[in-house]
Design goal:
The complex is a heterodimer of chains A (about 290) and B (about 425).
Chain A lengths: L1 H31 L6 H17 L4 H23 L8 H23 L12 E4 L2 E4 L1 H22 L1 H11 L1 H6 L4 H23 L11 H14 L3 H22 L2 H18 L4 H4 L6
Antiparallel strand pairs in A: 1-2
Helix pairs in contact in A: 1-5, 1-8, 1-9, 1-10, 2-3, 2-4, 2-8, 3-8, 5-6, 9-10, 9-11, 10-11
Chain B lengths: L1 H31 L5 E7 L6 H20 L8 E7 L4 H14 L4 E4 L3 H14 L2 E4 L7 E3 L2 E3 L8 H11 L3 E7 L2 H16 L3 E8 L7 H10 L3 E5 L6 H9 L8 E3 L7 H4 L2 H4 L4 E3 L8 H14 L8 H20 L4 H8 L4 E4 L2 E5 L6 E11 L2 E11 L2 H4 L11 E3 L5
Parallel strand pairs in B: 1-2, 1-3, 3-4, 4-6, 7-8, 7-9, 9-10
Antiparallel strand pairs in B: 5-16, 11-14, 12-13, 13-14, 14-15
Helix pairs in contact in B: 2-12, 3-4, 5-6, 12-13
The chains are: A mainly alpha (about 290), B alpha/beta (about 425).
Chain lengths: ~290, ~425
C-alpha cells in the first residue's frame, strides 16, 4: 500500500515535470507553427538564472519561480525582435535559426560560467509515505504545473488578450483587418513561451545538474509530447504529458529507465499512427 | 668631474658584461640542449563534456614536462610537449592519434580519459609501435605490452569501499551505474567483491548518460531496502541522482559508496548535506598532507592560480605516468620503445605526490597506495590508508612477462 502511494506520487510528479518542460514549446509551436529548437537552451537559461540569483542571496522561491520566467521571457522577446520576426511562415528557416541560437547560447553560457555542473539547494525537505521517503519538492513541481495549467486556460478563455490571441492564430489576416496587429501578438506569444521554458528550467534546477548542455536531455521528450498533444495546446499538452508520463514512470519502476524510455517512444509512435493529428486532433477538438 | 668619469667607465664595463652575457647565454643553452628534443605527445579533452576533468590533466602534463626540463631534460635532451585537444570527440582521438604517431613521430603518448577513448586509440599505437600511457582510474583489465596504465583499478579501490561497507553497514547492496563499458564492468566488480565478502546484491540498475529523473530508481531502491547503495554514476546529468536522493530524505537512511564521486568538482558545487558521508576510494586526495603532495598542490597553484582547488587522482596519475616514463628513459639510456618497455618491466619505482608508485612488470599497471575518504563540509576526510595495493583484478588474467603477445581487455567473470 505504501509502495503504491509512493509510485502514484512519482507518476504524478513525472506527469507534472513532463508538462512543465513541454508547455513552453507547445505555446510557441501550437500557436505560431514555429519549431523552437532553442527550447532546451531557454530552459537552461532559466536554470542558470536561478543559480545566479541564489548565489547572490535572492530568496530561494523568488529565484526559482519568479526570476527565471521574467529573465528568459525578456531574452525570448529580444530573440523574437532580432531574429524570429523576419522568418514567420518559413518553417525550415526558423528551425535553422533557432538551432543556431541554441548552439550560440550553449557556447555563451560555457564561456560565462565554465563547463561545470552548478547546483541550487533544494528549499524543502522530505516527507513520509508510510515507510518510504519522498521529496517534498516534488509537490512544488506538481503545484507549479497545476498553476501553469489554470493560469494559461484562464488567460486564453477569459481575457481579451486570450481572445485576440486565439483569433490571430485562427486567421491572422482577418484579425489584422479587424484592427489587431499580428506582429505584436506573435511577439507576446513567443515571449510567453520563452517565459514558460524559463520557469521549467528554474523549477527543475534544484533536482538536476545545471550545466550548459543540460537542455539536450529534455528537448526530445518535449517535442514528442507536443506532437502527441495535437492542436489544442494546453489540453493537448496536459493529456499527452499524462499519458506519456504515466507510461514512462510506471515502466521505469517495473524495469529500468532504458525500457521506460523505449515504452514512451513506442507509445508515441502508436499514438501518432492512430491519431496523426495528436490527441486533440480527434478528441476534445474545441478545447484550448 | 672625476667622479663622473669613473662612473661612466664603470657603467660601460657593466654594460659590456651584460651584453657579453646576453650573447653567450643562448650559446650555453644550445650546448645544454644540443640534441634533438624528445617528443612527448598528449591527447586529452580540454573542452566539451569532459573538459572539466581534462583541463586539469592538461595543466598537469605541462607542469610535469616543465619540471623535467627545469631539471635538465632527459639524457641531456629537452622534452618537447606536443598536445592536442580532443574536444571530448571520439573521432578526433583517432585523428590526432594517427597524427602524433605518423606525422609528429612522438616518442611516447600520455593521455585518453574515458575507457571508450582509450579503446579507440590503443590499436593505433599498437600498430605504429608508439609507447602509450593511460593515466585514468578505470575498470581495469587492459593487457597489452605497448600500454602502461597508471590510474587505480577496482581491486585497489572499489574492493576497499565494499569492504568498508560490509563491515560498517551490512550485507545487502544495491548498485546504480552508468550504462556504458565503465559502469557495466565496475558493477560486475562491485558484485564480485560483495559476494566474495559474504554479502549480496539485491538489485542493479544502469542509466544512460542523459537520464535526469531518478524518482523511479529511488523508489525501486526503497522497495528493495538495501543496507548500502553503491554508485558508479558518471557525468553532469547523473549528478541529479545525489540531489534527488538527498531531497527524498534517503541520505540519512541508507549510506552510499561511489567509485567516481568527487573526481570532478562535486565538492565545491553540491551542498555539503548532499555530499557528506559518501564513501570513496582513490589513489590520491588533495587533502593529503605528505610533503610531496603538498608540494604538488602548491606548485600547480603557483603556476595556474590559487583557484586550482579541485585536483584529484586523474591529475596525480598523469604526473605519475610522465615520471615513470622519464625514469625508465633514464634507466634505458634511450627513448627507443623496446628499451624503455624493458626498463619499465624491470620494476621501476618513483616517489610522487600519491606516494610510492611501482610499475608492475606482469600487468603494466601500478602498485600504489589507495586512500579511503569521505567528504566533510567540502573537504576530504581521509578514513584509511592502504599502502602497496596490487592491481589484482588485472593480474588475475594478465601476465605480460610470460605472454608478451597478449592484447586484450579482461573483464571479471562472475
Amino acid at each position: 500500500m505504501d509502495l503504491t502511494g509512493l509510485v502514484a506520487f512519482n507518476v504524478v510528479t513525472g506527469i507534472a515535470t513532463l508538462f512543465l518542460i513541454t508547455i513552453g514549446l507547445g505555446v510557441i509551436y501550437g500557436m505560431m507553427r514555429i519549431i523552437n529548437l532553442a527550447h532546451g537552451e531557454f530552459m537552461m537559461l532559466g536554470a542558470y538564472t536561478a543559480v545566479t540569483a541564489v548565489d547572490h542571496g535572492v530568496n530561494i522561491w523568488v529565484a526559482l519561480l519568479v526570476l527565471p520566467p521574467l529573465v528568459v521571457g525578456l531574452i525570448g522577446l529580444a530573440v523574437e525582435r532580432t531574429v524570429i520576426r523576419f522568418l514567420y511562415g518559413r518553417m525550415m528557416d526558423t528551425m535553422l535559426a533557432t538551432w543556431g541560437i541554441s548552439l550560440g547560447l550553449i557556447g555563451l553560457v560555457t564561456t560565462l560560467f565554465g563547463n561545470v555542473v552548478k547546483a541550487v539547494p533544494t528549499p524543502v525537505g522530505s516527507f513520509e509515505i508510510g515507510r518510504y521517503g519522498a521529496s517534498l519538492f516534488n509537490l512544488v513541481l506538481i503545484g507549479t504545473a497545476l498553476v501553469a495549467i489554470v493560469a494559461l486556460l484562464g488567460l486564453l478563455r477569459f481575457t481579451k488578450f486570450g481572445l485576440v490571441l486565439r483569433a490571430t492564430m485562427q486567421n491572422a489576416r482577418m484579425a489584422a483587418a479587424l484592427g489587431v496587429s499580428p506582429g505584436t501578438i506573435y511577439m507576446a506569444t513567443f515571449a510567453l513561451g520563452s517565459a514558460l521554458a524559463g520557469l521549467a528550467g528554474g523549477v527543475l534546477a534544484p533536482i538536476s545538474g545545471v550545466s550548459p548542455d543540460m537542455g539536450a536531455a529534455y528537448i526530445a521528450r518535449a517535442f514528442i509530447t507536443v506532437l502527441g498533444g495535437g492542436p489544442a495546446i494546453v489540453t493537448g499538452t496536459g493529456l499527452a504529458s499524462g499519458l506519456f508520463g504515466f507510461i514512462d514512470e510506471l515502466v521505469s519502476f517495473q524495469t529500468s529507465p532504458v525500457i521506460g524510455d523505449v515504452a514512451l517512444l513506442c507509445a508515441a509512435v502508436l499514438l501518432i499512427r492512430v491519431l496523426p493529428q495528436g490527441i486533440t486532433g480527434r478528441f476534445l477538438r474545441r478545447s484550448l | 668631474m672625476t667622479q663622473d668619469t669613473i662612473s661612466r667607465r664603470r657603467a660601460l664595463k657593466l654594460g659590456g658584461a651584460v651584453a657579453a652575457g646576453t650573447v653567450a647565454m643562448p650559446f650555453y643553452a644550445r650546448r645544454a640542449f644540443a640534441a634533438e628534443p624528445i617528443k612527448l605527445g598528449s591527447l586529452l579533452d580540454g573542452t566539451g563534456a569532459l573538459g572539466l576533468e581534462g583541463r586539469r590533466m592538461i595543466q598537469t602534463t605541462q607542469y610535469a614536462v616543465d619540471k623535467l626540463n627545469a631539471a635538465g631534460g632527459l639524457l641531456g635532451r629537452p622534452i618537447q610537449l606536443i598536445a592536442y585537444d580532443t574536444q571530448s570527440t571520439m573521432q578526433l582521438y583517432s585523428q590526432f592519434a594517427q597524427k602524433l604517431a605518423l606525422e609528429d613521430k612522438v616518442d611516447v603518448i600520455q593521455g585518453g580519459i574515458t575507457s571508450a577513448s582509450r579503446e579507440a586509440i590503443r590499436p593505433i599505437f599498437d600498430r605504429d609501435k608508439t609507447l602509450y600511457f593511460y593515466n585514468t582510474q578505470y575498470e581495469g583489465g587492459v593487457c597489452d605490452r605497448n600500454v602502461f596504465c597508471t590510474g587505480s583499478t577496482p581491486a585497489q579501490t572499489v574492493d576497499h569501499i565494499v569492504d568498508y561497507a560490509l563491515k560498517t553497514w551490512g550485507k545487502k547492496a544495491y548498485i546504480v551505474a552508468a550504462d556504458y563499458n565503465y559502469g557495466h564492468i565496475t558493477a560486475s566488480w562491485m558484485t564480485k567483491f560483495m559476494k566474495d565478502g559474504g554479502g549480496s546484491v539485491v538489485g542493479t540498475d544502469f542509466f544512460p548518460l542523459d537520464v535526469t529523473n531518478f524518482s523511479s530508481a529511488i523508489s525501486r531502491i526503497q522497495q528493495a531496502a538495501p543496507d548500502i547503495v553503491l554508485s558508479a554514476l558518471v557525468g553532469a546529468n547523473h549528478s541529479g541522482f545525489y540531489r534527488q536522493w538527498d531531497a527524498a530524505g534517503m541520505k540519512g537512511k541508507i549510506p552510499m559508496g561511489s567509485s567516481v564521486f568527487g573526481l570532478g568538482d562535486e565538492l565545491t558545487t553540491m551542498d555539503p548535506s548532499t555530499t557528506n558521508g559518501i564513501v570513496t576510494c582513490y589513489g590520491w586526495y588533495n587533502s593529503l598532507t605528505t610533503p610531496a603532495s603538498v608540494d604538488f598542490v602548491k606548485g600547480m597553484q603557483a603556476k595556474y592560480g590559487a583557484d586550482v582547488t579541485d585536483l584529484g587522482e586523474l591529475d596525480t596519475a598523469t604526473f605519475d605516468g610522465i615520471m615513470l616514463w622519464a625514469d625508465a628513459v633514464k634507466k634505458a639510456g634511450s627513448v627507443d620503445r623496446d628499451k624503455v618497455i624493458d626498463a619499465l618491466e624491470s620494476g621501476i619505482t618513483v616517489e610522487t605526490p600519491s606516494g610510492k608508485v611501482t610499475m608492475d612488470p606482469k600487468t603494466h599497471h601500478t602498485i600504489r597506495t589507495a586512500y579511503l575518504a569521505t567528504p566533510k563540509d567540502r573537504k576530504w576526510d581521509i578514513l584509511q590508508t592502504f599502502p602497496d595495493q596490487y592491481p589484482a583484478d588485472t593480474a588475475g588474467a594478465c601476465d605480460l612477462i610470460k605472454n608478451p603477445k597478449t592484447n586484450k581487455q579482461f573483464v571479471p567473470t562472475l
